[in-house]
Structures are given as C-alpha cells and as structure tokens.
Design a protein that fits this description.
Number of strands: 8
Organism: Eubacterium limosum
Structural class: alpha/beta
Largest sheet: 6 strands, parallel
Number of helices: 17
InterPro entries: UROD/MetE-like_sf (IPR038071), Uroporphyrinogen_deCOase (IPR000257)
Order of helices and strands: HEHHHEHEEHHHHHHHEHEHEHHEH
Radius of gyration: 21 Å
Strand order of the largest sheet: 2-1-8-7-6-5
Distance between the termini: 20 Å
Protein name: Uroporphyrinogen decarboxylase family protein
Domain Uroporphyrinogen decarboxylase (URO-D): 246-387
Strand content: 5-15%
Length: 393
Amino acid sequence: MDNNELKKERIALFKDTIQRNDPKRIAHFGNLFSWKVLDAGYTLTEALYDYDVMENVIRDTASKYKVDVIYEFGWRNPLQAIESLGNKTYLIDDKTFTLNIDDQCLMEEEEYDELISNPKKYLWEKLIPRKHRYLKDKNGTEAFCVFLKKYGEMGEYLGKATRIMEEDYGLASFFPQVVAFDAFGNGLELLFNSLRGIRGLSLDIRRFPDKVEAAIEALNETFVKPRLEKAKKVMGKGSSPDTCVDFNPVFFSHTIFNNKQFERFYWPYMKMIADYLEEYDKLCYIFAEGDSSRFYEFYQEFPKNRIVLHVEQDDIFEAKKKLPNLTIAGGMPTTLLGKGTPDQCVAYVKKLIDKLAYDKNYIFSEDKMISFPYDCQPENLKAVCDYLYAFRY
C-alpha cells in the first residue's frame, strides 16, 4: 500500500467509526503536543522559532510512532507571528520544558457596551492595540508588515508540514484548512481566551450575565454566523473526502460553568453547530478539556453518528454508557504512559478495547495533550502504537 492509499485508509477509519460503518481497526488520534519536541531532541525555543526544526520534529514523530493523525504540527503556538507585534503571551522555560500562556484580561469590564454596539470597531480600535503593543508605536506600520511576513511564513510551513505528513508518511489530514481558524472563534471562547480571561469572565457571568450574553450574541453575529455561511457555500453538503472530520471547535470555557450557565451561555452555540452538522451531513470532533460530565444531559441531544467527544478528565467508561449517540475518544492515561512499563500500557490498551470498542465505535487517544517530559516514555508510546496498529476487529 502506497502512502496515498494509506492516507485514504486512515481517513476512512475515522469516518467509518463515527458513522458506525464497520471500520477495519481502531483509529489512533495522536494527541502529541510539545512532548514530541523533547522526544526529537530539541528545546521548545529551538522548535517554536525555527520551522526547519519543527519539520524535523514532525518527521521524527511520524517515523517512530504509528499514529493515524498527528493533530498538532506547529499551528498551536504561533509565537513568531504574534511576537512580531509585541505580544508576549507565551512563556517558555527550556530548563523545565514548559510552555504557558498568560491569562490576559485585555478588555475592561466597563467596555461591554462598546463591544456589544460594534464588535469590529471595538476590537480594531482598542483590543488589538492593547494586545499588540508595537502597533501603537510610530513604527506600527513597519511592525504590521513584519507580522504579515511572519504570518505568511507560518502558512507556508503548515502547508509544507501537511504535505510531508500525507505524502511521505501516509498520515491523515484531520480537518479542512478552510475552516481551521473559523473553528476557534465563537463569541464565548473569544471572551474567555482573548478578551476577559478566565478570572474576568468567571466574575462577569455572575455580576452582569445579561451583558455577557449580549456580547456573545454580538460576536457570533459578527464573526461566527458569516463564517458558518461561508463554510456552507465553500464546503457544501457531505463530509469532505480529504479529511477525517469537517469541524473541530474548541471547547475550553465550559470549565467555569455550572449547568444553568452552560445552558444559557454555551448551549445555543453548540446547538447551532449540531444543527449545521445534521443539515449538511458533516462530522465533528470536540476535545473537551477538563471534566464535562455534568453536561451529558445536553450532549445526549446531539445527533447520532456525527460527533466525537474526546474526554480528558471524565470517566471514559461512564461516558461510553451515557452517550450512546456519540463516538467517545481518549482513554489512555498520560500517567501510565509516563510512569508505567510497556507491558502495563499494552494491558491498558486491551482494557480500553474490551470496554469501549465492542461496537466498533471508539477512537483511541491519549487522554490529555502529551506536553511535558513525564507525560510519556518513548518505549511506552511505541508499544501502544505498535499493538494498536496491528489490532483488527
């Protein structure tokens, strides 16, 4: 089988699993984040500031581990582009091999009305200059030109990395690039990640929930709904034959909500996406950070054979029982990959297969983003990948 055929087989694995169409084996979603940089012998600084180094990291990972998808291949941390505008959000420590992000609160609480009235005007005139301080300098135009150059270089690298994974290693592309950035921009996540921050939004939903709700709606009307309409026109109906899924929305801010707050602030957006998936015959992969088990009553309303829920801290065996309409993904503990033996890890894979894959509706993955040195031992990951790749239903 050549690499193009292998890529197609891997894409089919995901689609057949989600749609319950008798997949040949269990798909492996490679949840490998910054750890792969260390495993390839580099520091975070070396990899994140040099696309040639990151290419070497991708080749090293693809050649050693038989995953079907390398989910993160350099798009998650666009340091070169954003730092060219003076944004120092990312904090790298090569000694401890850690990468953190500041919880920035760039929007003042009294500015909600401005945001609601005209989101684009507010973001361009207030938010962006605060976030990217070089734009306020007398050489702001020069800084913006540098940013465009860096942004273009990043785009070139991502395109090249995609070709390498597909053509040289037969890996599957996960979701269409035409909607890649659109998936990260719903109104609530913008408030949570870019405007008010974790602390700010946590207070806002209790002190003035009406303004939060209005801001979410204004942002969605300005950005999300037009992008969704664009996706409908560009992608049409039916799942893309070139990618595993069609949509991969972020799911971060739910961690601060109780059920009533989730129903008010988040569920309308999720319901909009669910309706789109069903009407346009699309497939979706949701990575739910933290524990989201308290929201299962909502997830039970999702259409069947459309959505994958990747659980991070939930009891995955309980999720399988309570959410028969969804494909469950995850399950391999990073604690075991980091501290166990190859035999112990393979034994756990067998348990996951027995308890979760009995109906061929399970996607294997590491429960958390493998990011830190003690998240995984190379020999453990290799043993897991080799066993899973050889397994057949």
